[in-house]
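Hello Y.,

Per our agreement to keep a running log of every chain we model this quarter, I'm adding this entry. I've kept the format consistent with earlier entries: sequence first, then predicted structure.
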Amino acid sequence: MDAYTAPQTDDTTHISASTAARVLAILCLILGVLGVLMTCFSSFSVVWGQFAQNFVDPAQSEMLRAIQEQQGWWVLPLSALQLLAKMVLSIGLIAGGGLVLADKPNGRPLFRPVLIYGIVLELGMGLWGAGYTALNFGTMGEQFGDAMAANPDMPPGFGDTAGGLFGSMMVVGMVVMLGWALIKAGLYAGTLYSLREPHTD
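Predicted structure for the entry above:
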């Protein structure tokens, strides 16, 4: 009598993402879409800022040109690099989140590096922006005030007021942007952790 041979079975077990991971992946995907839109808008703003002096009063144009020169040649290349880095992250969030939601076998391993990259990028850019603003908000406020005061249509003393408001707005914006960067980094970290949780179908 022939010995019984057990039927061959597939040892690989499909591991799908948990419900928490799917919810977090949806949030990451939404952030990716918003990131693409905001990066496109920011790119337009950067390009417009380089040519804005051509559409204002000659005195203001000279002041804006002086401000750009004082900021240094590296500001524009750094801004372009930041926008490129954010676009790469946004596309990665859309692709990785979509793969996880579609329950693709390679979705989880491909999404993890994107999330790690997002954590490093958000924390790095958030801290850099906060430090740069903290060191320069006073000077940039004065420069903005001088640019406003150069407009002959503005009332006396308006430049000082506008400069003070601009500096205060920069500080508020710094706090908001740093907080938003920490929230996003926390979301990416939570998603990364949730993808480590095995969930067998």
